[in-house]
Amino acid sequence: MSHLLRSRRDAVLGRWVELVTEGTRGRMTEGEVRSELTELYGLVEGALTDPGGTTAGELRAALADISRSRARQGFSPTETAVAVFALKRAVHENLDGTGGDAAYADFIDFSAYIDELGLATFETYANAREQVIADQAEQLLELSTPVVKLWDGILGVPLVGTLDSARTQVVMETMLQLLADTGSRYAVIDITGVPAVDTEVAQHLLKTVMAARLMGAECVISGIRPQIAHTIAALGIEFGDIVTKSSLADALAYAMRGSGLRVLSGTDA
Amino acid sequence: MTIEPAGEMPISGNDDVVRVRQLVRTAAASAGFSLVDQTKIVTAASELARNTLVHGGGGSVGIDQTVGDRGKHGLRIVFTDRGPGIPDLEQALVEGWSSGNGLGLGLSGTRRLVDEFSLESEPGEGTTVTVVKWIR
């Protein structure tokens, strides 16, 4: 097979480039495809001549690069794999049919090898995607636990999503640190974005409030929607003397009153 | 009584508790529960899924749409684990009693969130909790 790849190089490579260029539907020029495939072609040739050598490793690295760059250009993983598989057709069309059974066996082996390479591009694509998802999950964890200053002496902690132990830890640490840094007396924990409050979430909230209390700050829990209120009451969770409000605005008004601030309407100050 | 299967999934980590919640929320919303009842059944499922994980060492959950007598529709959720089981069922359902350091409201509170609640447990064999909520 490697003999054929060498002896009919121009014909096979030319046909491969033609097939792949067709498949890109104008997203890559023939010149780009040609330079990419010429490199691959050389590596495939080398890998077939010396299966245990370093060329096989280089070939895989080159495929991984191509898979990544194509993913960035908006190709689907199937299109990338099909481009690799097209080499089989290019080779098949260049067989002269004189090799007999041995040539068949040879072509089957070659075909299996190309299949393997095509699947390798798939794997690279999947791995790249996994990496993106993992990165996003991490960013989300950081993004989803901000502590903001609502007013002098009043902090806001908007919680969105699932409140598990890890998130509570991050929220609690950030909030307590900011309470200390800003000397705030109030912290408003808003749970509008928390879809369900079960006993674990409630326990996390209670612990956070207790910790703030130890630092001399008062926590107000806001954003308790009707369905959440129903559920908390049915579960039998006691919030004790912790102030809870249905909206963030109510909580802010409460904290401002507590800080001795008055909000006046009108233009004259 | 006919049952249409809606989904089944294993519970083996904290991520699965979140997935159970999403699955139950979707099932409850498509079954036509009110927002309050959706939240109640999701919270109950969250509570029981965490029990399955923490006390049962993992297990599985099955969610079915079910039709009761007089043609009322509802959602039935079954949690199964092969964990150590609960030695004293009476005590486990007492309000404020906790085997760990929780609030002690998990099982007793969950019972108030649903319409039907059954708890079967054999020490050393595992635990099965079945809850049903009817659409009002």
UniProtKB/TrEMBL annotation, chain A:
Gene3D superfamilies: STAS domain. It comes from the Bacteria. Coiled coil: none annotated. Residues 144-255 form the STAS domain. InterPro entries: Bact_StressResp_Reg, RsbRD_N_dom, STAS_dom, STAS_dom_sf. Keywords: Phosphoprotein. It holds the Pfam family RsbRD_N. This is STAS domain-containing protein.
Automatic annotation (TrEMBL), chain B:
It comes from the Bacteria. InterPro entries: Anti-sigma-factor_SerPK, HATPase_C_sf, HATPase_dom. Signal peptide: none annotated. Its EC number is 2.7.11.1. Residues 36-136 form the Histidine kinase/HSP90-like ATPase domain. It holds the Pfam family HATPase_c. The keyword Kinase applies. GO terms for molecular function: ATP binding; protein serine/threonine kinase activity. SMART domains: HATPase_c. The keyword Kinase applies. Keywords: ATP-binding, Kinase, Nucleotide-binding, Serine/threonine-protein kinase, Transferase. PANTHER family: ANTI-SIGMA-F FACTOR RSBW, ANTI-SIGMA-F FACTOR RSBW-RELATED. This is ATP-binding protein.
